[in-house]
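Morning - hydroxy diiron-OXO moiety inputs below, output right after.
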Amino acid sequence: MISKKIEKEINEQINAEFWSAYLYLSMSAYFVSKNLPGFANWMQVQYQEEISHALKFFNYLNERGGRVNLKPIEAVKTEWDNEIEVFQETLKHEQHVTFLINNLVNSAIEEKDHASNNMLQWYVSEQVEEEANVDEILQQLILLEGNKFGLLMLDRELRQRTFVDETVQNN
Ligand code: OFO
């Protein structure tokens, strides 16, 4: 049986993951409106990843005899100034999620909940990847600033991204 503290914090994290999904779907819509289908695709795959992250927590909490409580998802931003601003915000957001995951790990250690700590290590590794992927695109955008041809080439590259459910594969 999972402790009430960890149950509450995982429920909060489920909400945070759904909020991330909602944010990235909003960014996807922004890129559609800017005629950048590759960027829109990248963000839509990001949305799918966040849903899978939420579901992994959802399934884990149920498995441990906890009670899932789904809370309302707060509104997200819908407009940005440019592509760089979107990726700067994405990186900042992923850094915040890393902070939330680290806090969850700290709680699991305090509660001597080894199973939760073990499950959370998947997210610790995932966050390293998330931050690195976003930062790579951000750095490319900074290099390309003002170069429309380069932006279209990057858009073409980002169109190739497909969703792979790593929460299933790595379990
Ligand atoms: Fe769930 O990793 Fe991004 O937010």
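Note: The chain has one domain: 4-169.

O.
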